[in-house]
Amino acid sequence: MGMTEATATFSALRPRLHGIAYRMLGSVAEAEDVVQDIWLSWNGVCPGSVDNPEAWLVAATTRRSIDRLRAAKARREEYVGIWLPEPVLTDEGASPEDIRELADDVSVAFLLLLERLSPEARAAFLLREVFDVDYPEIATTIGKSEAACRQLVHRAKDQLRNERARQRVPTEQHLSLMRRFAEAMASGDFPAIRSMLAADAELSGDGGGKVTSFPKPLLGGQRIAQLFYAAHLRFGAGVQVRVVRINGEWSLLRYIDGVLESAQTYVTDGETIHGIHVQRNPDKLKRIVRGLQGFAPLGD
How far is 91 from 133, CA to CA, in rounded Å? Predict the structure, then answer.
């Protein structure tokens, strides 16, 4: 395999490699760093010395992501406030099938569930359940026996099953709820906001130490409704909300006086909202701002 062919192979597999790294790390920047590292390593491989380039690249990306995740978990213990994954705008040109797949395996809520797993368990689960990699290849990749990998995946599925099931809501039903909630938030309709929130709803916010956010989750639909209503009292017509797809799911962008203030993703059963993840860290909103350049900043 010559250098031109090697470059073409890497380019063709780059989306898959980035997908593995992002799902492992919950950070676009770190995923891009991993893929760049693998590209440099791939350039150092002698042409023709790799029998299965895809297996080599997937394994190298996964191992590098495991190492990065171990380091990231240590850093996140020192993170100011609550850490949430970096949200990503879903490509407007994505097919309905691609969007459903994204909503299943890369939603912000799902990425947070994956944080419960060890780096090796997370890798084994993602390779098997999301990327359909065979167990022998998983075993070689993470340095464990096939039996151990099967156990890791089985336990991870048990650990995540119940909460993943609640996230599967028909797209149109989710969109309808988001539109109604966006309208209520923008207009300051407190009764409407409260009616769409479950009594035991939970809101988590990530300010990254850059902007004000709660150090721990805010619990209770009444308190969360009061929080949203307080923003309307303070900013009035300056609060505007846009419905967009983030990580494959219908979500909300809230603007204060024309500036993106937060990206909000929701966990819902289709009727009421049970969880809200509010990303306010400016560093994690930069890509969304860039992705929306050239489009009208507000509305749905």
Answer: 25
SS3 of residue 156 by DSSP? helix
Going along the chain from its start, the domains and CATH numbers come out as: 3-167 (1.20.140.160), 171-291 (3.10.450.50)
Three-class secondary structure of residue 253 per DSSP:
strand
Residue 266 backbone phi and psi in degrees, to 5:
-130, 140
Three-state SS for 264?
A: strand
Do residues 29 and 86 make contact, with C-beta atoms less than 8 angstroms apart?
yes
Phi/psi zone of residue 230: left (φ > 0), alpha (ψ -120 to 50 degrees), beta? alpha
- Contacting residues for 192 by C-beta, under 8 A, at least 6 apart: 180, 183, 184
pTM value surpassing 0.85 = yes
Structure tokens at 285: 């909103």
- Beta-sheet strand order (sheet of 218-219): 218-219, 197-206, 273-279, 259-268, 249-256, 239-246
The pLDDT averaged over each successive group of 10 residues in the chain (300 residues) is 77 94 95 96 81 92 96 86 93 56 72 93 95 95 96 91 66 94 96 98 95 92 97 95 93 96 94 96 94 56
**Any long-range contacts for 171-177 (C-beta under 8 Å, 24+ apart)?**
171/96, 171/99, 171/100, 171/103, 171/250, 173/270, 174/249, 174/250, 174/266, 174/268, 174/270, 175/243, 175/250, 177/266, 177/268, 177/270, 177/271, 177/273
Give dist(CA 80, CA 34) in Å, integer.
Answer: 24
Q: What is the pLDDT of residue 25?
A: 96
CA distances from 78 to 71, 72, 83 (A): 12, 10, 10
* CA-based torsion, 186, 187, 190, 195: positive or negative: negative
